[in-house]
Amino acid sequence: MVPISVKGILRGVRGILFLKNPRGELELPGGRPDEGEDLEGALRREIVEECGIKIHATSYMGSSSFQVVPGQRVLIAVFDCGFTAENPVVSNEHFGYEWVDPERERPAVMPHFYWEIIYRLRNVATVAEVVPPDVRRSNHSMPYPLQIGFLDQDRLGITSRIYDASSEKFLGSFLPRKGNILDVGCGHGQMTRWMARESPEAAVLGIDFSRQQIDVARVDAQREEISNVMFSTGDIFELPESAMSNSGFDLINCRFVLLHIQDRFHALTNLLERLNPGGILVTEEPSLASLYSVPPVKAFEEANALIRRFGLLNGINYDCIEEVWDCVHRLNARVFAANFSQPTIWTPELKRIVGLSFRQFQDRLIACGLVTPTDAERISGDLDHEFMQGHVISTGLRTLQLALGRANEESGS
Ligand SMILES: C[S@@+](CC[C@H](N)C(=O)[O-])C[C@H]1O[C@@H](n2cnc3c(N)ncnc32)[C@H](O)[C@@H]1O
Predict the structure, then answer these.
(1) How distant, in Å, are the alpha carbons of 76, 238, 260 from that of 343?
(2) Which residue numbers delimit the Nudix hydrolase domain (predicted)?
């Protein structure tokens, strides 16, 4: 029988991780399963052993048999891996590592079959091709997968009705009366405007890397005649200084943004660094795995599973609570408060969010080969009909709300 080797695709900012083996060739991390070990278990073990990286999610990509050395065929099973960005620490099985950009030439020391694997995956993950050209890509993330600007007004409006009450309750106890407040990845600015209304003497700035989101936020702020709020484009990885004092912020809010970011550790580091002494960072991020409906609706479960797989395929684990909490500890951040929250979605108006969200992902799911156009239409149709029936209720996303400070600092508020 052809032996099996399980290999991991770890996509970093600079490309896919390869290790240098004693033959001087580049190879994907991974190896042979031990007796009785499942493939994912073997992959996790091998990757920790070979490069010290902990995998927190895997998604099966496919398998093929290759002649790895003359006369020896091996069945290579490939998994896309979600991992917390960190530098590999290679074991003495290898002589180093390299991040290989699949858009460039094949490195001379990479066997052809590995290049073929990457090449095939490159054809599968054609996400960038269906992204509108005006959607900016942060250096540390895949392109933002949802619609933006006025096209997403309906869905973000429902999001606000589902989640704002709990977010406001949590955030409310940390709002400074005066000073500088920043809302990062503010979208259409619902929470930004709420903070400005609640703290009329504070200067509130909302930033988002999409100009279209900012356009909507500005229109709404003008309509509501809120004078202490400003909006501008900005990236979580290049945070601004506060306009008033050219320093940091007394409160930074960041909700449903780390969810879309690969390098969450770096993002959280940046957010904490931008705090004034005694300042508070409030984050709220969800896990998509937390969704369920009563009674169970197949299309609801399929839609959720597909979106989670799409994330993993693109290096994003949408079940991000665990990773955010892990980063908080690795950063040694002070935790002033932590709270799990999970709303109920039961009115027809709120239930529409499920179909709206799925439809926004639909083309990308098809382009990635995760679902056929026929199945995507069926799921979409069932979300509009079966899921919308009066006897079906569902949860919204479970989120983890955190109020954080820099290490060894007391809250100034
Ligand atoms: C799901 S929306 C959340 C909007 C808002 N925070 C809320 O809770 O209503 C995520 C927003 O994050 C923005 N975003 C994603 N990556 C970002 C980045 N690297 N820097 C700044 N904004 C980003 C997107 O453009 C989008 O508007």
Answers:
(1) 43, 32, 21
(2) 1-124
The residue whose CA has the least distance to atom 25 of ligand 1 is 210
Pairing of strands 398-405, 275-287: antiparallel
For residue 236, which atom of ligand 1 is closest to its CA?
20
Ligand 1 is surrounded, with C-beta below 6 A, by 138, 141, 144, 156, 159, 185-187, 190-191, 208-210, 213, 235-236, 255-257, 260-261
State the pairing for strand pair 249-255/275-287: parallel
Radius of gyration of the chain (CA): 23
332 sits in the region (left: phi over 0; alpha: psi -120 to 50; else beta) called left
The whole-chain average pLDDT of the chain stands at: 87
Which atom number of ligand 1 is nearest to the Cα of residue 144?
A: 15
Residue whose CA lies nearest to ligand 1 atom number 13? 185
Q: What confidence tens digit (pLDDT) does each residue in 105-118 have?
A: 788 898 888 887 77
Query: What is the CATH T-level fold of the domain 4-124, as seen in this structure?
Result: Nucleoside Triphosphate Pyrophosphohydrolase (3.90.79)
State how far Cα 271 lies from the chain centre.
16
Give the pLDDT of residue 126.
31
Give the residue, out of 184, 258, 260, 281, with the most ligand 1 atoms within 8 A of its beta carbon, to mutate for a pocket test. 260
Nearest CA residue ID for atom 8, ligand 1: 255
The phi and psi torsions of 264 (rounded to 5 degrees) equal: -70, -30
Dump pLDDT digits (tens) for 56-84. Answer: 777 777 777 777 777 888 888 888 887 76
Architecture of the domain spanning 149-405:
3-Layer(aba) Sandwich (3.40)
20-29, 154-163, 233-242, 281-290: segment of lowest average pLDDT: 233-242
How many A from CA of 147 to the centre of ligand 1?
A: 11
Residue 367: predicted pLDDT = 81
| ipTM value for the complex | 0.99
Q: Which residue type does 63 have?
A: S
Domain ranges of the chain: 4-124, 149-405
Contact 404, 272 (CB under 8 A): yes
